[in-house]
């Protein structure tokens, strides 16, 4: 929740006229529970959506492990008929987890950003995940996993996507 990339995503949402909700997954910070390999964390995210979003239009965004969890929430919420207007996946942990495919109807509203020199999640694994879905990936030249020195660019990419 205090990660600078997560804060940048929240700031981009607010700058685009949306309300942003950040939270810690189970076992992080002062939250209760323990890491559950994405299963319980998906429940965490869906609980936050249910509590905070009501039934209106929804934007889901995530970074790294959070992008993996977000991908599964997008799939589940889409299957339930929720109105998802935008999806944002940053530094998606494609080399570490089975990231869900983006539903075909949501692909035009999906922004994927990855650092060219990400040493935590290789760009090649994100390309291998995106390619069969024909999902464009915005590559930040020289960018690492945490986008050091490039957070203003990341914020602007996300903001532009959300107002488009």
Describe the structure.
The chain is of the alpha/beta class. It has a single domain (4-163), classed as Rossmann fold (3-Layer(aba) Sandwich), CATH 3.40.50. 38% of the residues lie in helices and 13% in strands. The protein has helices at residues 4-15, 39-52, 65-79, 123-130, 151-163, and strands spanning 58-63, 84-90, 110-115, 138-140. The protein has a 4-stranded parallel β-sheet, with helices on both faces. Strand 3 (110-115), helix 4 and strand 4 (138-140) form a beta-alpha-beta unit. Helix 1 (4-15) packs parallel to helix 5 and helix 2 (39-52) crosses helix 3. The longest helix is centred in the middle third of the chain and has 15 residues, at 65-79. The radius of gyration is 15 Å and the shape is globular. The two termini are 26 Å apart. The mean pLDDT is 95.
């Amino acid at each position: 929740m205090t990660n600078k990339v997560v804060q940048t995503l929240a700031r981009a949402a607010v700058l685009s006229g949306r309300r942003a909700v950040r939270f810690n997954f189970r076992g992080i910070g002062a939250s209760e529970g323990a890491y559950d390999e994405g299963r319980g964390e998906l429940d965490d995210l869906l609980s936050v959506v249910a509590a905070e979003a009501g039934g209106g239009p929804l934007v889901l965004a995530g970074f790294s492990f959070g992008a993996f969890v977000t991908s599964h929430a997008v799939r589940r919420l889409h299957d339930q008929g929720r109105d998802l207007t935008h999806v944002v996946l940053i530094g998606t942990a494609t080399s570490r987890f089975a990231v869900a495919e983006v539903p075909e109807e949501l692909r035009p509203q999906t922004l994927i950003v990855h650092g060219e020199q990400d040493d935590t999640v290789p760009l090649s694994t994100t390309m291998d995940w995106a390619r069969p879905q024909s999902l464009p990936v915005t590559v930040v030249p020289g960018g690492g996993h945490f986008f050091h020195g490039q957070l203003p660019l990341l914020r602007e990419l996300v903001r532009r996507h959300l107002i488009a």
